[in-house]
Amino acid sequence: MTGLPPVAVTCGDPSGIGPEISLGAWRALGADVPFFVIGDPAHFPSGTPLAVIDDPSQAPAAAATGLPVLPHAFPDPARPGRPTPANAPGVVEVIRRAVDLTRSGEASAVCTAPISKKVLADHAGFGFPGHTEFLADLAGGAQAVMMLASDELRVVPATIHIPLSAVPGALTPELLESVIRITAKGLVRDFGLAAPRIAVAGLNPHAGEGGLLGAEEMRWIGPLCEDLRAEGMAVAGPLPADTMFHAEARARYDAAVCMYHDQALIPIKTLAFDRGVNVTLGLPFVRTSPDHGTAFDIAGQGIANPASMIAAIRLAARIAATRASGGGA
Ligand SMILES: NC(=O)c1ccc[n+]([C@@H]2O[C@H](COP(=O)([O-])OP(=O)(O)OC[C@H]3O[C@@H](n4cnc5c(N)ncnc54)[C@H](O)[C@@H]3O)[C@@H](O)[C@H]2O)c1
Ligand SMILES: N[C@H](C(=O)O)[C@H](O)COP(=O)(O)O
């Protein structure tokens, strides 16, 4: 226990595995890492020992008897695997509520259960491609940087939720430089690393093969890395992306900054799908999430693995404690 307020966990899509992995997290963590879920008490698996609270401060004591839930009423029941349009706006309201509670100091961090972007776009007018971009907006337009972290590997996609065809146009020296700087700062502030080492992936096969397979590396990614090295930052690259994720290569850096979503997320979800955590860097509050989605295909069957959610709640509490102590700052 840190003495900090509890972590606010959003319900995510109630028809996904959010309710059951939250229950799994409470079973594993009990009151050791205080948290509460914001959601509809009727959405949890039948037989869930619930501890309904009306204030986040009650969560640590409530956790001794059941899963602490701060109620948020939804119009429809949760139908596992079959999201209902009427519930979509509530999913967004819950995220806002978790952020408000964290910004007011009643919660120490936000941990989000998975949402379906498509369901929210279709039925809640959600104008963002993911939590990351929504949270950046709630933070007043901060530049939010997505990191997925595990013991084996940390990765950061410089461009996030955009089509592959849009990546070369969206990648600019300004964007990449700020992503590298926010990553370095996050590794110091939130992960307590004194001198973080960052590896930067190339965009093209073989990092462009000297211009034969693409020009971006020679034209500006390489020179940007040079400039940052000249400043004293430990930045390696641009490295060929196909050979930078094996065990020996990973030992040489603390985070890999990649050019697009799948370049970053395929290696970590292959190595650590059951324990990776999505952390948003660059926000004025702490936010984590499990590294998987709504898993509608298995929702309600009681087989979803709660390990990534457990790791996400633990990491949220740890980062909040590090920030509160001024630890890595
Ligand atoms: N943090 C988030 O909100 C988040 C993250 C990723 C994906 N998504 C969303 O989730 C939806 C589904 O995405 P997807 O199908 O690509 O990925 P997914 O992670 O939901 O599922 C991929 C596969 O992994 C399995 N799986 C996922 N989590 C599991 C767990 N905890 N235990 C056991 N098996 C698990 C699923 O059953 C499925 O077979 C999409 O709408 C996507 O946008 C949300
Ligand atoms: N890109 C993430 C993944 O594939 O795991 C996922 O979509 C979550 O993104 P947000 O945290 O922005 O919702």
TrEMBL record:
GO-annotated biological processes: pyridoxal phosphate biosynthetic process; pyridoxine biosynthetic process
The organism's place on the tree of life at top rank: Bacteria
Catalytic activity: 4-(phosphooxy)-L-threonine + NAD(+) = 3-amino-2-oxopropyl phosphate + CO2 + NADH
Co-factor binding comment: Binds 1 divalent metal cation per subunit. Can use ions such as Zn(2+), Mg(2+) or Co(2+).
One Pfam family of this chain: PdxA
Gene3D superfamilies: Isopropylmalate Dehydrogenase (3.40.718.10)
Alphabetical list of SUPFAM superfamilies matching this protein: Isocitrate/Isopropylmalate dehydrogenase-like (SSF53659)
Signal peptide bounds: none
Gene Ontology molecular function: any one: cobalt ion binding
Cofactor: Zn(2+); Mg(2+); Co(2+)
EC numbers for this chain: 1.1.1.262
HAMAP family found in the cross-reference section: PdxA
Chain's role: Catalyzes the NAD(P)-dependent oxidation of 4-(phosphooxy)-L-threonine (HTP) into 2-amino-3-oxo-4-(phosphooxy)butyric acid which spontaneously decarboxylates to form 3-amino-2-oxopropyl phosphate (AHAP).
Misc remark: The active site is located at the dimer interface.
Protein name: 4-hydroxythreonine-4-phosphate dehydrogenase
Native source organism of the sequence: Silicimonas algicola
